Amino acid sequence: MFETCQDHDFRPEDYLQTRRQFLHRFGMGFGALGLASLLGPELLIPQSARAEADLSSLAPKVPPLPARAKQVVHIFAQGAPSHIDTFDPKPALARYDGQALPGMGGVAMPSPFKFEKRGQSGIEISEVFPYIGEHADDMAVIRSMWTDIPAHEIATVMMNTGSLRIAKPCLGSWVVYGLGTENQNMPGFVSLRPGGALPPGGSQNWQSAFLPGVFQGTSVNTQAQAVDVMIQNIRNPYIPLPEQRRQLDLIHQLNEIHSQNLQKDALLEARIEASEIAFKMQAAASDAFNINQEPPAIKEMYGQTPQGRQMLIARRLIERGVRVVQVWAGGWDHHSDIEEKLRKSALEIDQPVGAFLKDLKQRGLLDTTLVVWGGEFGRKPTRDRNGGDTPGRDHNNQGFCTWMAGGGVKGGTIYGATDEFGAKAVDGRVHIHDLHATILALLGFDHTKLTYRYNGRDFRLTDVAGEVVKGVIA
Fold first, then answer.
1. Alpha carbon 422 to chain centroid distance?
2. How far is it, in rounded angstroms, from Cα 35 to Cα 30?
3. Which of 115-119, 248-252, 335-339 is predicted with the least confidence, judged by mean pLDDT?
4. 449 neighbors 459 (Cβ within 8 angstroms)
């Protein structure tokens, strides 16, 4: 006759077993008892589990190589700005205006904008960027970028994750995975959006994918000016902080039971980490996102516009130790009327970015902050087939521009070149993987060694490619 053991209280995990786990434990249990007497208790914890626990922390880490930059601000000009009209002048197009360009599917269209030499370096920059042009001597302009596919969603996700097909961690998640973050009360990676619909690719652009959920980006809609509206649902008006802490601790315990007895669920983990970050942000975020604390002169310098608010918030986040800030500055898909529409898009971002670079420099932050600007691909040197009397430019993945500033960048530099018409990168070609490898190098990483094992394979941001663009590093 069986008797119930009064000394044993049943726990929730006793009920969380699959049939396979039950058979496995029943068959292997006695062997494990014998093995336990031979091994020390520290050896019974799988090495992978110990390593994962260490790597899942947001605590600051020292990079393995000398670092030039500590933080990254990626200003993403989504929609694919025309390099020919911004940072890559092509005077040859004026000579062939209206003439067919062989192999380019249309007639030549010169830029309607003037280019001026800026700074002591004399980098030629379009007239649409008078404020950004003031910082030419801090910038390294890469004129030889190229990517694989000229489709907005695919190319946008490619720029952010280095992947065309399968879901992979984004650049920001890899950086926080490698470096942690300086402020434990704020997310390590914040993505600032100006409102409206999600960008092409949606949350894939700031996801952690198979990396632990703690490294995913926190997306913030900055359209609202009130802090409580901008970052909703982090403050609980019904439960005091101690009770919230007890609830989160219980959720963590239950999740640990679930992970040990069933399986590790990445989506569940990410949701719990989001709740944890929200709890910590209740005080810190209210301060960081409140630009009303800034002097009127600073707010005027950035401009009282959505993009101006975004860039000012970005500076406040960098000041507070957030490791990666992504700023979405879209609206560059100019298939028609490029003369008016591109000027309008440039006007929205020019003063805010110029102010941001100036502000970082005045505060001594530019030397340690890597600033990157660019879109997902470029534009053709010909009139778009849909242009009509007010033409624009069609997609071009074979040539476009990106510029970098601060954080170890060789200022006043032009790297690479497209052909005489701007149709294709021909000198010093830089792929997305090369750009990512360079960003990681400036942060103190060999991009081939910043890896994460998943499904039996060591993954990295640059896949199996990528070369550091040494010409843009000081």
1. 27
2. 9
3. 248-252
4. no
Tens of pLDDT along 142-163?
999 999 999 999 999 999 999 9
Distance, in Å, from the CA atom of 323 to the CA atom of 346, rounded to the nearest integer, reads 27
CATH class of 59-231+289-472: alpha beta
Q: Determine if the pTM surpasses 0.70.
A: yes
Positions of CATH 3.40.720.10 in the chain: 59-231+289-472
Q: Which residue has the tokens 């999600």?
A: 198
Contact yes or no for 375/433 (Cβ under 8 A):
no
Work out the burial of residue 93: count CB atoms within 10 Å of its CB; fewer than 13 is exposed, 13-18 middle, 19 or more buried: buried
Crossing angle for the helix pair 306-319 and 266-288, to the nearest 10 degrees: 100
User: How far apart (Å, rounded) are the C-alpha atoms in residues 353 and 349?
Assistant: 6
C-alpha distances (whole Å) from 408 to each of 122, 313, 317, 370, 404 are 20, 23, 20, 7, 10
Which are the contacts of 102, defined by CB distance < 8 A and separation ≥ 6? none
Confidence band, pLDDT 50/70/90 cuts, at residue 39: very low
Query: Each residue of 4-21: pLDDT tens digit?
Result: 444 555 555 555 566 655
Contact 454, 183 (CB under 8 A): no
- pLDDT at position 117 is 98
Distance CA 84, CA 343 (A): 13
CA distances from 236 to 90, 245, 282 (A): 56, 12, 9
